[in-house]
Amino acid sequence: MAKVLKFAVLSFCAAFIASKITFGAENSTGAQKFFKDEDLTLTGVYYYPEHWEESQWDRDLRNIKSLGFEFVHMAEFAWYFLEPEEGKYDFKWLDKAVALAKKNDLKIVLCTSTATPPAWLVRKYPEVLRKEFNARYDHGARQHCSNSSQKYKEISLKMINALVERYGNDTAVIGWQIDNEPFARPNEISEEARKRFQDFLEKKYGYISKLNDAWGARFWGQMYNDFSQIGFYSHNPHQYLDMMRFAGTETAEFLDIQAEAIKSKSKNQWVTTNFVPTISAPAIGRCKNLDFTSYTRYMIPGYEGLGEKGFRLGSAFSISYANDFFRPLSNGVYGVMELQPGQVNWGYINPIPMPGAVRLWLWSVWSGGSKFICTYRYREPIYGSEQYHYGVVGPDGITTTRGGSEFSKFISENAQLRKRYNPSAQKVPQSYASRRAALLYSAENEWELSKSKQSNRWNTEQHWRGYYEILKSFGAPVDIVSGEADLSKYRFVIAPAYIMMDETLVKKLRAYAENGGNLIFSIRSGYMDNNGRLYEKPFGGLLYDLTGAKRLEEFDMLPGQKYNRINAFGKTFEWGVWAEIFTPSENTEVWGRYADDFYAGKAAVLHRKLGKGSVTYVGAQSKHFALEREVLKKVYSIAGVNVLDLPQGVVLEYRDGFGILLNYSDKTFDASSIIGNGNIIIGSNKLSTADVTIWDSFDN
Ligand code: GAL
User: How sure is the predictor about 185, in pLDDT bands with cuts at 50, 70 and 90?
Assistant: First the structure.
């Protein structure tokens, strides 16, 4: 996907990600052992020795150290230099770079460089190239090889084995990044991929009749006699879901075999990859062999942000959303592999980040609990496809950029906090912990909704974002988790537009509420089974019992910019995107009613007690999510939990005994009432735009 497009899709969300978030549960339990709590976070930088004169390496690494960095990230796109001819390895240059890093007291993260195969490989084995309808791939690009190619996997593993034999026991090498920003490729159409897709389906369904049922193949007479008849082009929405699942599985398998190879030969080195929210989505959650996940984040494509200068800062919740998504995937351990130190070269426009922005982003990553933060890249490239991309130093290789200095500042501030780190201090205040919420997420729902929007005003990302931002403005810690997660630690669970559900999940959610949880659904939840087929019930009928609906009578959407009204809590709210018109069961409270048209007076928001907890269904998307905000406030208040009302763009988090506030808004924020008697270590009670304040000894 073109970079610009990639950014457009992921601008807000870390999140439209993982299908089943069962990511490496067992493997990740132990991932904490790779990091020391008292380090809080480690900071590193990408260095490509192969791009520069060997005589400059020592100078560069020395400077990296003197700027405060603790590790260097190397050999990412270096396959050609590691294996210039098939089977002839050359590690001399990397040995030297590794030795110089050690000499300068830097740790090292190595990569498997499978994103950029050498020319000899694709010329000798052209069948490894990706094939897509309407797209051609060849040497000179990156990620132009197919995840379904067995030949490609075989040759990759040979190179990786040789690399790990060389560095797998080096104590200075702390970890490995597999490939680069691995993504799923649902458009791949090679014969090899097709055959593997057929095998995947046969394994999943066993009998072709089952697949015909799951895919609703009676429609348009799409019936198959045999798995071998299945291809990739189709208008069948149920097939689309399986194609996405298959693409994710192929990518995950490619990552897993690499991770396995590294782990079989290495000692005490972690293995991760740098996922991109969205394009990696189908693969995340399917990998079994990674120790934990890391992600990449680019903040300013020249739009988004608050106020006139917001385009220089980016969205307040872009990083926090990624933190909240990736952290729960591997039991709290995650890192950020790429965070820009300045302008990039691939946005629609590439403005200068506001002075202080890079530091603000660093603290945003930190605030979520990251174990490391690495920046792309040390030197600004003077040739190749990424000219104009900023580095920690400029094109002369020696002048520190503004972003480079902000990295340095962050590193010394983190060192200041390390000194104050107290392992026995309370990690977060009780008031904050009591607001903890889970947002239930499944990428599969996102794929489904992308195919069945029904209204051009529908935007799944925006819908999600609406709920997420309300929770963050309450000062609530949020985990983004799948339906398979243990929900018992959350007092509040919100399932926005959770369209595909099965009985097992409904049962689990019922038990959650009965045991005291507060469950909130939004529009379009529970309509379909996991194949994307509507239930053979009254519309939305799967959830009636749980939500206290007697019937979802109809659903509506309005044209253009038109809005109708809902009366709730003594106020009037507007809606235009989607509305569900309910008849409630007896004993179900109605918190909001439609005010217009032929269904004026009908129910829009349902609420009921269930066991020790409650279930709420918000049946409309309102303008600016104003109704949703009031509903969530009320649910929190009934549960006896106080919430904050943080202004737009102000983010509050706690980790490891420290409180942190980040100001992405265009106004000064007075934090006195939040910090109270806390002891400010960095910043002050008054946060201007891009300011960060950190304190410890917080009030409860
Ligand atoms: C990332 C990619 C890096 C580099 C960077 C430039 O998405 O992983 O290799 O291209 O963008 O901003």
Answer: confident
* pLDDT tens-digit map of 201-210: 999 999 999 9
399: phi then psi, degrees, rounded to nearest 5: -85, 120
Would you say how long the chain is, in residues?
Answer: 700
Q: In what order do the strands lie in the sheet with 650-655?
A: 650-655, 658-663, 692-696, 679-682
Nearest-CA residue for ligand 1 atom 3 is 376
Q: How far is CA 354 from the centre of its chain?
A: 24
Interatomic CA distance for residues 549 and 543, integer angstroms: 8
* Cα distance between residue 16 and residue 617, in whole Å: 22
Nearest CA to ligand 1 atom 12: 344
User: Is 261 a pocket residue for ligand 1 (Cβ < 6 Å)?
Assistant: no
Q: Is the pLDDT of residue 20 over 90?
A: no
Listed in order, the ranges of the chain carrying CATH 3.40.50.880 are 430-638
**Residue 218 token pair:** 């009676």
Residue 344 near ligand 1, beta carbon < 6 Å: yes
- Ligand 1 binding pocket includes 674 (Cβ within 6 Å): no
DSSP letters along 125-147, please?
Answer: -GGGB--BTTB---BTBSS-B-T
Q: Ligand 1 within 6 A of 180 CB?
A: yes
Model's pTM, two decimal places?
0.95
Q: Measure 351 CA to ligand 1 centroid, in angstroms.
A: 17
Q: Does domain 4-420 have CATH number 3.20.20.80?
A: yes
Segment 586-601, tens digit of pLDDT: 999 999 999 999 999 9
Q: How many whole angstroms from 668 Cα to the centroid of ligand 1? A: 33
CATH architecture of the domain with residue range 430-638: 3-Layer(aba) Sandwich (3.40)
Q: What is the largest CA-CA distance in the chain?
A: 80
Cα-to-centroid distance, 110 and ligand 1 (Å): 16
Determine the distance separating the centroid of ligand 1 and the alpha carbon of 155, expressed in angstroms.
Answer: 24
User: Where do the CATH 3.20.20.80 domains begin and end in the chain?
Assistant: 4-420
